[in-house]
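Practice record 12: protein with adenosine-5'-diphosphate.
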Amino acid sequence: MNVLFVASELAPFAKTGGLADVMAALPAYLHRAGHDTRVVLPLYDTVDTKKATFEAIMDLEVPLGTHRYACKIFRVGNAPPVYFVHCPALYARGRLYTSDADEHRRFLALSYAALLICQKLDFAPDILHAHDWQASLLPMIIKTLFAKDPRFAKTRSLLTIHNLMYQGSFPVEIGPDTNLASVAHLFHQDLMKAGRVNFLLQGILYADGVSTVSPTYAREIQTETFGGGLDGYLRARSATVVGILNGVDYDEWSPERDRFIPHKYSASDLAGKERDKEHLLTSLGLPYIKGVPVLGVVSRLVGQKGFKLFDPAMFDLLRKHGFQLVVLGSGEPVLEALFGNLQRAFPRQVCFYQGFKNDLAHLIEAGADMFLMPSAYEPCGLNQLYSLRYGTVPIVHRTGGLADTVKQWQPRAGAGNGFAFEHHDEGGLRWAIEAALGAYRDPKQWQRLIQNGMAEDFSWDAQGKLYELVYARLTSSRRH
Ligand code: ADP
């Protein structure tokens, strides 16, 4: 199949979260599986162009309403090729996402550029795989403005929602910039009357298929609690909404061969893990004391991730149980302040490293004993999957992808791979952390628990096949 991916992130070039990891792995899997896969991405000024060879292959002009954007397209790699859209007027902002007045145009330009690239390369996609709101108008665009182009006549579209809370909602005045004024009746009319256009909603309405990144999240987003106002539309399309867990790139994330950790280890020989723990603590200026458990956090510090449960519970837990806590992340000032306060209150127990640092993320996965993800909601979550592979026991709120991957430890049966609390409150968090600390005190139990986690397989070879099945279903339903 010919598959066109359009997205706003791709590791290692442009990453704020899990989407970037998926974009690095899924197209590569499909390429290996024999599909002609192409990826289109903005060339943000933050992309390190020394990381690969960027070859200029064409110039394009993208019209958006009365605006005209001159773009240069660079190709990187061949397995599969990634086309970067270079347009400094749109992408030289020092960061991936903005609240600037032209935010909608930044990703409309990406969307149109992707189709123009296909035309110039004479690439006829069987599947257009659009990711998140940034690419959500594409299903509508190919069904209308590009409907006469035979290259898109048979294209079926799949919209993958990586996080329903980012919807791309704009004032209706941006309408002309979409080039879709001639089919304005296809926009959600009540919302237009209320003065808004919602890109993700348009994608949900017009994509041939909708997927999200875990089976539980696929169900949750069809409820009012998690639906972000779009649950009714998702319920209406329930038969086409599927949940496929993200896979893990085990070449990047395996303790046997992780280039960022000094001591490699495996399920059958865990000695390196203890030495990585010592290395982690000493490199962060914390004392290493054998037998004292280390809890890790690597996260964007935003409301979704649930850290407000730490205040004040974590102060009490640290005092009572004496464990250590290593936190890597940045984001909302109140959460940064919370971790700053914890560090000041417990200087020998807590280290807060404020920032985004891939090598430290790997070292925390290896060196910590437990990994905390108290997310209020979590579409898939990758860090708990990395944790399982590193023998770092996840402690999570049972929601979304966390519910699908972390199974509650049952000491008698020796079954389970982590700790999952049901109610998103301080009591839930406290219960799960104390249960984990209790298990940690029994080395035999703990070893079993660690090994259960390390034996799990969330590779892309398994998850990629599920996408192939969805593609096959979508293309088999098209008219020939
Ligand atoms: P989300 O996409 O909501 O941020 P995920 O768990 O799906 O959450 O993906 C997070 C990804 O971003 C993981 O690869 C994780 O290692 C990485 N990450 C998050 N915060 C940081 C950070 N501060 N430093 C380095 N990597 C980070």
